[in-house]
């Protein structure tokens, strides 16, 4: 095999491994961010932000002034509808409305049936049942998920409740009847610890929102890197681009 061809192959391999290493570094950063969020949730929901004494409850330790409130006294859930046809993977002018299923946004449609300033979505069926998402504006919820039809407690902050349910991990209570499932009845069996004031709840939310934005940034970076890797690999292997035409130093940075 000519030396020039071998040299080209070596450069292609070097470039592919470089992108692979960048993706690996991104994965480590993501894992660190997720762990930071997990630890922050544990501290906030067991100790709060006021430095007060703790008390033992049926769900573990929590600040002494917080009260356990049944889910059914906070919200009323209902199932979504059958998903619309012909979803697109990305939003567009024609299909701008997110469609949420058991694990969040599954596509975009030209149809919607909910228009809310903020709504709590809970995965109902599938591997990720119990997953928590918050949606706003015009959107569609499929029958693989539950959403809050009625908010019953003006002393409970929706985002605080959403973060706590994520921390509480409803998936561990799933029922295995053919496929993993969480139900309204099962969710209503649980109680949520609520600080006495909305201000304290919103302070907790502000801390977790900051961490969540960092997690989301790393999540989006990883998605971009995955797309780059696939496109680069395809173009290099088909000869559509040559390795000499790529600024390797830019990728390294």
| Strand portion | 25-35%
How confident overall, as mean pLDDT?
Answer: 88
Total E-strand runs: 12
Structural class: alpha+beta
Distance between the termini: 33 Å
**Helical region count?**
5
Described by strand count, sense and barrel closure, the largest sheet is: 6 strands, mixed
One letter per element, helices H and strands E, the order comes to: HEEEEEEEEEHEEHEHH
Global shape: globular
Low-confidence stretches: none
Could you outline the blueprint of secondary structure elements for this entry?
Layout: H1 3-47, E1 54-57, E2 60-63, E3 67-70, E4 75-79, E5 97-101, E6 104-109, E7 114-123, E8 132-141, E9 145-151, H2 158-168, E10 175-177, E11 179-181, H3 184-188, E12 191-194, H4 198-237, H5 248-252
Parallel strand pairs: 5-8
Antiparallel strand pairs: 1-2, 3-12, 4-9, 5-6, 7-8, 7-9, 10-11
């Amino acid at each position: 095999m000519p030396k020039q061809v071998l040299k080209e192959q070596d450069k292609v391999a070097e470039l592919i491994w470089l992108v692979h290493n960048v993706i690996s570094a991104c994965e480590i950063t993501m894992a660190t961010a997720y762990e930071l969020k997990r630890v922050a949730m544990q501290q906030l929901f067991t100790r709060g932000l006021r430095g007060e004494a703790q008390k033992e409850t049926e769900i573990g330790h929590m600040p002494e002034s917080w009260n356990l409130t049944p889910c059914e006294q906070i919200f009323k859930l209902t199932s979504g509808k059958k998903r619309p046809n012909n979803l697109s993977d990305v939003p567009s002018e024609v299909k701008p409305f997110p469609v949420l299923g058991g694990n969040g946004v599954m596509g975009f449609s030209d149809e919607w049936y909910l228009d809310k300033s903020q709504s709590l979505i809970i995965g109902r069926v599938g591997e990720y049942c119990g997953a928590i998402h918050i949606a706003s504006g015009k959107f569609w919820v499929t029958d693989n998920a539950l959403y809050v039809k009625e908010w019953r407690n003006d002393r409970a902050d929706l985002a605080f409740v959403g973060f706590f349910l994520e921390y509480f991990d409803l998936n561990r209570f799933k029922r295995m009847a053919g496929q993993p499932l969480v139900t309204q009845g099962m969710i209503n069996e649980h109680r949520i610890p609520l600080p006495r004031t909305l201000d304290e709840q919103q302070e907790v939310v502000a801390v977790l929102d900051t961490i969540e934005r960092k997690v989301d940034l790393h999540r989006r970076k990883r998605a971009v890197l995955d797309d780059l890797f696939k496109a680069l690999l395809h173009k290099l292997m088909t000869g559509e681009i040559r390795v000499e035409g790529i600024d390797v130093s830019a990728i390294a940075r």
